[in-house]
Every structure is written in structure tokens, then in C-alpha cells.
Design a protein that fits this description.
The protein is about 25% helix and about 20% strand. It is α/β, with parallel strands linked by helices. The chain has a six-stranded mixed sheet with strand order 10-11-9-12-13-14, with helices on both faces. It has a five-stranded mixed sheet with strand order 3-1-8-5-6, with no helix packed on it. It has a four-stranded mixed sheet with strand order 15-16-17-18. A hairpin with a 2-residue loop joins strand 10 (about 200-205) and strand 11 (about 205-215). The radius of gyration is 32 Å and the shape is elongated. It starts with a strand and ends with a strand. The model is unreliable at about 185-195 and about 220-230 (pLDDT under 50).
Amino acid sequence: MFDQIDIEVKAGDGGNGAISFRREAHVPLGGPDGGDGGDGGDVIVMADPSVNSLRFFRSKRPYRARDGGNGKGKKQHGKKGQELILKVPLGTMVRDKTAAEGEGLLADCELPGQQVIVAKGGEGGLGNTHFASSTSQAPRMAQRGEVGAEKSITLELRLIADVGIIGYPNVGKSTLLAAASAAQPKIADYPFTTLEPILGMVEVGRQRFTLAEIPGLVEDAHLGRGLGHDFLRHIMRTKILIHLVDGAAASPVEDMVRVNSELSLFDAALARKPQLVVVNKMDLPQVQARLAEIKDAFSQVDVQVLFVSAARGEGITELMVEAMKMLSRLKAEAEASVKVPRTVFRPQPRAVAASAHKEGDTFVIVAPEAERIITRVDMTNPEVRWQLQRQLVRMGVTKALQKAGVKPGDKVRCGNVEWEW
């Protein structure tokens, strides 16, 4: 059952900017014409109604978008890297695996076509045309492309259904789903015949809703026993629950209490979901014989109960009508409580200023923009070093080094490049 899986994603790297100069015979002093590199492709997760499971991701391979193309001469920009779209079923939650517990939710893909960028592609580097000035008309420097983001993410499928059928194994959930809809779940006389949720569409007059059979659970399911979390995870989204109990059980009321206890231990919000408690197997003689006893037991705990025979289809229509009424009430209450959200403007932070600090006898520059240039230039060329010096002044790197106490002859490092100041 593939309803939760961890994968690695890698966005495309940005292409490098080009160092190029016009060479046409009829264009004297043509100047720089290096194009910019293309941006790397993003990794996108998209909800697709045609996908019904996470089986595609079971190979566990890294999923990588395309890199951006490098810039070329004649101001030709590199091609943008192709994005990678990972299609997931509706109801998939996307989490950052490295985030702290309870945090890191990147998206909750509930709507068809809903998308989220889980790994942003690196920006393409600038060509040498961007570094030309009145005092540096032939710049021999360009930027490298940024490295694309890498992430470990968790895809967790949580069923989207209006009504969920819950209860112990073998109480007749599959039979009820088959009787109320056109779904064809596996039905057999042994526990755990259903190993993953099954959906069916129910029509009540001109209205319809989605009904889901949720795999059965056992005691201590909240700890992962039996189908454990595979059961409990899928009822998080349902609006109401049909709580099916076996009329032939020794104590239907105690069975109901145990199931509700598992719900509250896993998540207190689950136990607060509206429920229709339904006693099944009314076609059995032993259940008919103790009908009064069952009614009295539920009345003592102040629970209204419905009686059905899923095998014969008795009471199913009435049950679906009640479920539709409850859904309509909840929808009306939700619409009445909706408030118009206030628009919040969130200014983007300014770019981080360059900084420098001393490590041993070396001054280390922290300036990503400068690093993307320095790693692409020939530091042995005096002309290039002069041009670079002017760029470092413009970026605030020189000022940061002076504030850190740099002096001529000191060692300076930026990224993996080291030189004498």
C-alpha cells in the first residue's frame, strides 16, 4: 500500500553566463556580447485527478529537473531548463522531511491542478555584457549559474471523501459501500479483506456525495498496530463518519467505545467529527432476538442508532438520506462562519549584504553574488584582477574586508578560490 513515501528532488542548476566579444570586421571596438545563462527548471508537485496512488514513486530514485543552458556570444541567452512535474493524487500532503515535527508542510493538494514548487531552480548567471562600464569596456568576467535546490520530501496520501465508513474488521463496511454505491470492494468472511481505502459515489435525489470505506482497525491502532496509521490517516479529511458496528458482537456499545477511543488517541479532532452510529446485520436471527437489548444499551449511553442489513440492502436508503442531511447542515454552518480574509502585504527582504570574517590567517568573504563571479575568472590575469577589484567595490565586498581588518598581502578566500589581497 503506497500512501506514504519519501523521495529526493533536485531542481536544475542555472546556466553560466558567457564571456564573449563581437569580432565582426565591420564593427570596430564591438565590445562584450556574452549572453546570460538560462534559469534551471523547478520541481513541481501537482494534484492530478487521473492519478489514484503513489506507486509511481516507489522506485525511490532522485527526481531531477533539467539544467539551464549556458549563455553564448551575440547576446544569446541560454535556454531555460525544463521543469519537472510530479503528478500526485488529490489529497496528497507534501512535507519537508528535514523540518521539525509538526512543521514543514509545503502543500496540501486538495484541488485538481493545484501546484506547488518544492525545489526552486537556480538562476542563470549574467554574461559579461552586464559588467561593462565606462572604465571597464572589455570585462572578462561573467557569473556562474546558481545551483538548484535539493530537498527530501514526504508525500502522504490522505483520502478526500465526504463520508467515511469506520468500524472493526468484518463488520460489513465493504458490503455497505457496495449496497450504497456502484463501488465493488472485495467482500469475504474474514478480517482485513480491505487493505486500502475504496471510494464510491452515492446519489440522494439530485445531490451526491463521496462515500469511502476505510480499512478496519484493531485495538492500539493509534500505535501502529494492525493497519494502524494506514486506517487513521485516511479519515482526517472526511466531513462525517458512519460508525458501523456488528449487531452480532458480544457488546456493540463497547465496540463503538473502543473505536472512538482509538480515534481520540490518534487525534482528538477525529473523535469530535459528527457520527452516524449504525448497527449492521439485522438480517441475522440472533440479532433480531436481541434487538430490544441493543436499543436499550445505546440509549443508556445517550446515542441514537440506526439499524440496517447491508447484505439485504435494508435501511440503506434511509441511512444515506440521513448522511446527506448531516452534510448539508455542516456545509450551511461552514458557509455562515466564513470570514473575508484580510489582505496581508509581506515585503520581500533585501538582498543580504556582503560580509567578511577572519579564519586563522585568512579573510573569508561571504557574498554569493561575488562568489558566482570569482569562481569563473582567471585570477592570474592582471587585467581580470583589476576588473574584479572594481566589482568587489561595487558589491560592498571591499568595504566588508576593510571593516574586518584586511591589509595588502593578506590571504583572502571566496568560495573555493584563494588569493592575495
